[in-house]
Amino acid sequence: MSRPVVEFWYEFASSYSWLSVMRIEPLAQAAGVEVEWKPFLLGPVFLALGWNDSPFNIYPPKGRYMWRDLERLAARYELPFRKPSGFPRSSLLAARVALVGVEEGWVASFSRAVMQANFAEDRDIGERAVIADILSAQGLDADAVIERAQADANKLALRRQTERATELGLFGAPSFRVGDELFWGNDRLDDALAWARSHGAG
Amino acid sequence: MSRPVVEFWYEFASSYSWLSVMRIEPLAQAAGVEVEWKPFLLGPVFLALGWNDSPFNIYPPKGRYMWRDLERLAARYELPFRKPSGFPRSSLLAARVALVGVEEGWVASFSRAVMQANFAEDRDIGERAVIADILSAQGLDADAVIERAQADANKLALRRQTERATELGLFGAPSFRVGDELFWGNDRLDDALAWARSHGAG
User: How many beta-carbon pairs below 8 A join chains A and B?
Assistant: First the structure.
């Protein structure tokens, strides 16, 4: 019997994805569940729903609430938080690099560092220099990694992963999948792990 | 020092409101928190956001997910559930009657019975006969209550309560308020009660 697996679909610009990226590893480890990191882009998923911006920008009351909710949750999880001066930030390069990180085994720590930059340090993760900085701090060769991230095959892989998100019925991030079972939102992280434990072993 | 209070804003057609209506009383009691029942209509609130239907109907992937999520949550809370054959059902009469129930002290049990009819028995709560049936089963004089519910002053009171929801920044249901602190969704019921305990005593 193999270890149960949860697919973790997240977007670097997404505020609630930030919470799950920071939290998932120790929780999954404690639950004995393996995490498959699935960075993708919410933009095309939202466009398919008719939104050309974050719903938190399109619907101001939802946005106001979200930032306050985030502040409360950050306090609960003891995560440093500074509201980003730009939202949502461009996450294209970060997502492409993360896909390389999936291949090479450093996606988790890279993803946490990008989220920390976006939601605790108010740095623009859309800038190449910020991503390069993060990669260097991880002990990686930033130029070489970014070159691999920008290769056609990797760009295509991210596009495919994003299309797959829509095909799977995802409509927001973070989302978690265990087999065909979908869980949406940081609020469902624990439920997804519990489901993987009880239903997900192959 | 008075007892802490949570305002409970809910809509009879709303699936997640169903869960909170069924759950809130024992949880609030255990927390030592008083519940102010605030029935309102989501329709006008949604219209102000540009939606002329439930977002679960406008955005099919959200709707598919919601019904599955609801099924899982109903199992967790051990609530009988049958997917309503119409969604969202007209909740105008039920909300008007509930306002009378707030005045007369029977809003909690009436609200649970309406939710049970809508989400466990697939009865059309938009029909006067169904509401009358529920009132009678509560030992109330159905015709007299419905007449009070349909009086101009009560109709106006519901309209005002719904306008107030928009003014307060509500954008969905259930919502909970403790002072100026807003919590959205059945997922935040426990947080709202905990907040009321620690911040809400007058």
Answer: 37
Which member of B14, B20, B91, B175 is catalytic?
A: B14
CA distance linking residue B165 with residue A152, whole number of Å: 50
Is A14 one of the annotated active-site residues of the chain? yes
Q: Find residue A39's DSSP bridge partners.
A: A10
Q: Is A67 on the interface with B (CB under 8 A)?
A: no
pLDDT digits (tens, 9 = 90+) for A7-31: 999 999 999 999 999 999 999 999 9
Cβ of A59 within 8 Å of Cβ of B68? The answer is no
Over residues A33-56, the pLDDT tens digits come to: 999 999 999 999 999 999 999 999
- The closest alpha carbon to A174, from A191, A186, A166, belongs to A186
Q: For chain B, what are the domain ranges?
A: 5-199
Restricting to A residues 136-175, those with a Cβ less than 8 Å away from any Cβ of B are: 169-171
ipTM: 0.93
Could you give the angle at the alpha carbon of A37 between the alpha carbons of A36 and A41, nearest 5°?
A: 140
* Cα B31 from Cα A77, distance rounded (Å): 22
* Helix, strand, coil abundance in chain A, percent, nearest 5: 60, 10, 30
**Could you tell me if B61 lies within 8 Å of chain A, comparing CB atoms?**
yes
Residue B201's pLDDT band, with cuts at 50, 70 and 90, is low
Q: How many CB atoms lie within 10 A of CB A189?
A: 21
A199 touches chain B (CB under 8 A): no
Q: Compute the Cα dihedral for B145, B149, B153, B158 and give only its sign.
A: positive
Cβ separation B64–A170 shorter than 8 A: no
Residue of B nearest to A195 (CA): B72
| CATH node for A5-199 | 3.40.30.10
How far apart, in whole angstroms, are the C-alpha atoms of residue B116 and residue B134? 10
Question: What is the CB neighbour count within 10 angstroms for residue A34?
Answer: 14
